[in-house]
Amino acid sequence: MIRLSAECEALVRREGERAFPNECCGVLLGPLLDGDGRQVEAVLPIENNREAEEQYHRFRIEAEDLMRAEKEARKQNREVLGFYHSHPDHPARPSEYDREFALPFYSYIILGVEGGRAAELTSWRLTEDRSVFNKEELLCR
Amino acid sequence: MPVIQIPTALRSFTERKSEITVAGATVGEAIAKLAEAYPDIKQHLYQGAELRSFINVFVGETNIKKMQALDTPVKDDDTIMLVPAIAGGIQG
Prior knowledge:
The complex is a heterodimer.
Chain A: E1 2-4, H1 6-19, E2 25-30, E3 38-40, E4 42-46, E5 59-61, H2 63-75, E6 79-88, H3 96-101, E7 107-114, E8 117-126, E9 133-136, E10 138-140
Parallel strand pairs in A: 1-3, 1-10, 6-7
Antiparallel strand pairs in A: 2-4, 2-6, 7-8, 8-9
Chain B: E1 3-5, E2 19-21, H1 27-37, H2 42-45, E3 46-47, E4 50-51, E5 55-59, E6 62-63, E7 79-84, E8 86-88
Parallel strand pairs in B: 1-7
Antiparallel strand pairs in B: 1-2, 3-4, 5-6, 5-7
């Protein structure tokens, strides 16, 4: 289960609409909760580093950007819990391409953006053997 | 001795430790020592003898690709950070 504060949810939705028709991306920061839960307390939007002509269906977080996000998380005494990105005019479900490039442990929040409007928001986690994404309960409040 | 900072995704292989102090005069030696101390992490860092392509390594704030890669020398007070590559997107 992953909890997303109202402010963080609003920011992810705004970023998805701002980037449309391209994909947006960013980092989720917060503490791990007891059991298997996570609480997203801060969202760091990151510039999509893919070539401009590829951004309508791809995102990439540059290593330097993630390094700075990791340092910021440590400074805030928070964890990098995962990442968000948008699927412009596509469902909020991970693609095979998402799976190929994902890592276990992280939460992958996906925002569907339909015609420029933020729509469904889902979260996913890759199994340890990397074979499949499981939907993760996402609580927005 | 240099310190290696472990990303959250790999901490399940380091007993949840976020920083590991290791011996080593180069980045390559330090990471090899980490894999020696925590063998389960090895498969996630290496493909054969090479570091996996989706693992980026920084000394301070500089990517070792801009230095001498795994031969980059490290000092006792250096911080080495392992950073995974993150990408994705819709099909097509």
